[in-house]
Amino acid sequence: MAASIVQRCFSAAVKVKCRTPLFTARRCLLSASYTDTKLWEGMEKDPQNLALLANFMDITYDKKLPVSSLTISRFVDNISSKEEVDQAEYYLYKFRHSPNCWYLRDWTVHSWVRQCIQYGVRDKALHTLQNKVQFGIFPDDFTFNLLIDSYIKDEDFKSACAVVAEVMLQESFDLSSTQILSLYAIGGYLATKPTLSTAEERALGAALLILGLKRSDTIGMSAQLLGNTLIGEVEMQRGVHGVFRGMPLSWRRGYMGRALAVMEEVAADAGDAKLSQDTLDRLSQVLQDLSSTSSDSSGEESAGEEEPAGEEEPTKESGGVDEEDAAERAKLPEYVSRFKDLRGLLETQGKVEPSSFQALVSALAARSLAASETADLEDYQGRVRTWEAEKRHLILREKEMRERSEKERQERLAARAAAQQADNRAAG
């Protein structure tokens, strides 16, 4: 039953591997001690027969009763094959749509992602993560790091960036290690020169902007510039409503102008911050493409002036832009002129970094990732101990409830037997 419903209800996530000869060495990634499963596997075990557990959950749901968070946790923890990962996906969905949906434990989410990585079905983890409302999968930073790292090691930067987009939506860029891994993933993906969809531009742009605001060095300023550039391109093409669809961004127009403001800030700063050559080239290309598109659109409008009023259809490109969006587009020639002046100024000041954005991030990872790991591992060890204590408490409470339920059942049976004996005496 579970398998058939899964096939009908869930679409498999597609894993696209982006390989490039520029990134063949597996360096600047999480260490073996960070990804080691020894600590996780060392937690107290609660062995279960998954067939019996699945049958119990099916019966419970058929009776319109809730399944406990401990039950779904036991199922996920005892996965031992790819097939059982599929079953767990189904029961995670069922649990999310049950009255107990708010009580999915953090260690269950962590265990789910680890099991998907272990059995080679990371696409399942990514699918449930991208559909978190339907599955309730909201990982912590450490768990995000494990999933991003697993994709980076296989040079699947596209999928790694899909995870980074979820980190951005969950606003979980608190750990330095997560920031570094996310920047590495985005840099690796953009280095492959992909043709980005609007959704990818919006997500990667937002991630880069948020990450860049956490730093004031060359990497941070370059990330801000690139993030504003990607979001600005979406704004110019789709209008501001195309930017803020599900994004944790301030509702203000003018992202292309803010990209130029980053250039002005670097030019006016007396510090060592620079802007990387490739991010400036990206902004230059976007402005050039937008100018070309704007010219083509103007020509089409002139050619169609004789068409009767009322027959003109808004194009998909316009996305129903309003007057303020049109005013922002009208600033494009000004933006192009300002960009040329600012780039010349930066070059004169020696504030253009010749190294690529990805090279800068790779150097950052080699320099800082190990130190970030130490704090993460200490926090993770404490978290595992807390999870163990919570799990023991739940098991104890479950045992007490069962004992109390059994005692109450025995008391009811005894009372019923006593009443039956009294009736028999009265009848005699």
Automatic annotation (TrEMBL):
It is found in: Cytoplasm; Mitochondrion. Transmembrane segments: none annotated. One of its GO terms (cellular component) is mitochondrial small ribosomal subunit. The keyword Acyltransferase does not apply. Its main location: cytoplasm. Pfam families: MRP-S27. Residues 401-414 have a biased composition (Basic and acidic residues). Coiled coil: none annotated. Keywords: Coiled coil, Cytoplasm, Mitochondrion, Repeat, Ribonucleoprotein, Ribosomal protein, RNA-binding, rRNA-binding, Transit peptide, Translation regulation, tRNA-binding. This is Small ribosomal subunit protein mS27. It comes from Merluccius polli. The gene is Mrps27.
